[in-house]
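Response to reviewer comment R2.3. The reviewers asked that we include at least one raw input/output pair. We reproduce the pair for Amino acid ABC transporter permease here without editing.
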Amino acid sequence: MTMKKWVQAFGALLVTLIAFSGLIGLGHSVHAADDSLAKVKSRGVLVMGTSPDYAPYEFIINKDGKNEVVGMDVEVGKAIAKKMGVKLEIKQMDFDSLLVALQTGKVDMVLSAMTPTASRAKSVAFSNVYYKAKQYIIVNKNEKDLYKDKSSFAGKKLGVQTGSLQADIAKSQIPTSTQLGLAKVPDLILALKSHKVDGIVAEDPVASAYVQNDSSLAAIDGKFNLAGDDLGSAIGFPKGATSLVKVANETIAEIKQKNLFPTYLKTAGKDMAGNVQNTSMLHYWSYFAKGVGYTLLITLLAILIGIPIGTLFALMRLAKNKVVHLIAVSYIEFVRGTPLMIQIMFVYFGIGLLVDIPALVAGVIAVSLNSAAYVAEIIRGGIDSIPVGQTEAARSLGLSQRQTMQSVIFPQALKNIWPALGNEFISLIKESSIVSIIGVTDLIYQLKVVQTATYKGVQPIVVAMFLYFIMTFSLSKLLNHYERKMQHDN
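Raw output as returned:
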């Protein structure tokens, strides 16, 4: 392809993306009147977004064989939904995806121990602060005597949750420290135990929860300088949703008047204690089994969808029609040139803004379309590997172009590309783990759930590694069987 055609293709793609961005912006233009509360009441459901890895605010327990999100924030959410006269629906995702979900209409509110910072307030309408807590630093117990407060961590490495208040205050008040930012608190705990960080900045209730359930940890008062009414935890709503904010503020006032927060924390403590009564990995087999099931389902659907689409784009790229060829090249190069994680978020949050797409469906679509681009190149390479004489011989015998491709070229190409296709299928099992960022309960997601529930970092990882190995090894053996069979048929 010439440079001019590449520029034309890139320009067309850029215009398309800009136009799509314009549609998104148009969909979020300022409303003449606030109808946010009316919409929630008409649906009968209030959708709450949260990252359930932050006990005692929000975490997961197994109740009657099913995962259930519980914690203080969930109780607040239930109270708000009750006041509105609707049901509460909880959507789970990574903490740093919550505001995107709010801005794209995936959730009605974010209740996840979020601090109403000035930067967030530019794009989010916050309720009044409903809970304030001190900021502590979690350390390994055998190193507790080395630290007194935040000043002891000058020049040290601190773990913080990505996009959190803790990340901001650690950066501003301990400027000589370095940070390791991770999306999940269990990952930070694992980093602490493996001495990747010297401490973790966390709110008092969170620090207490981990220390009480893990004898190898300790917590010290960081003595951070916290001031202002904007500090603490608040509920995030879309900009302009004043009617929702009003109901939330009324509910928060009632909860404080009745002094219900100590009760909420006490209930959360009981749930946490139930989680750690039996922390053996065997006890959590159903979690891992569910994760394996979803991982295999996503992989299977991605293969079934990706192969036909990939084959189509391979043929389009080999076509003599310049327009068809350009479309195929643009698609393949664009998909291969962007991270799968971004593609998943675009499908779920971007396209999902126009059409409500469930997380699982969005994950399958993104993984399938991503795989199709790689399958297309594999198939194209296989077709190109067949000598031109094969095509000429078939056409001289009276076979049409379609018959030649179907009966002569493609069967030979399939034998050549089978190992490469097999590698792509095996990679799909592992790459599908990225769908956990939008709340799909695949194996990686369930791994995080078990880590949060048991306060164990390494054991769930070992189990997940073993399960991934079983899946990939089994598929590898199956693919090798058919490869030997095809070679034998020669």
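The CA atoms of residues 188 and 474 lie 33 Å apart. Residues 135-221 form a domain with the D-Maltodextrin-Binding Protein; domain 2 fold (CATH 3.40.190.10). Further pairs are available on request from the corresponding author.
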